[in-house]
């Protein structure tokens, strides 16, 4: 628990491990026991047939909400499922209090189908700035963390994405067609150009991890829900990458971005992808 007059930096120095423990427990207690064991009544559709929520999402978010709010008194929690129930609660991201941004199961569709490509995402932000993030892929037991100014790590090893290999097509994970409007599909068509190899994304959190690892060169996403992006953009930043909207501005978790936007393993790649998304045919 945060102590009187303790800064967020001091809190993170003492309690980053406690957050990791909470994320691991949420996965162990509420998510993994339900993998491939969900009954029909434990799966619901939200806004579209592919937009699913399960008892694992709900129960893991409730667990994390209780633990994180207790760990940092005065903080608020913005979770994907709570916002679905009460959209007004999303406004806390724009407030003054420290805010935990939680996606209990990022990649619910994969989770429902028994695929391993899902993760749990937690970020801590204040005044629109992401200060720390935790990304956990429980099937593979891979845990990535980032603290602003202190680097990104995967299972304790420092991450550095570095630039793409010269002469190779850029590997870009894009918004999945099932989750895009016709207009967004047209925007993303700009990436179908020589020297670029776009593909539909899976779990956004795992795609960001792939960028931080240098396994993917960039993302191109057309939505801005903070629970999908907050943890990942800090992970990429602290691994040496950056993020830009179509207008060339950094992505803001508070919203109002010129979409689509990219997160890339280095600044040159980010500028190239952002230029393509802005309709500049050369991408430079």
From TrEMBL:
One Pfam family this sequence matches: Inositol_P
Alphabetical keyword list: Hydrolase, Magnesium, Metal-binding
Keyword Repressor: no
Known EC number: 3.1.3.25
Keyword Magnesium set for record: yes
Catalysed reactions, as listed in the record: a myo-inositol phosphate + H2O = myo-inositol + phosphate
Classification via PANTHER family: INOSITOL MONOPHOSPHATASE, INOSITOL-1-MONOPHOSPHATASE-RELATED
Protein name (database record): inositol-phosphate phosphatase
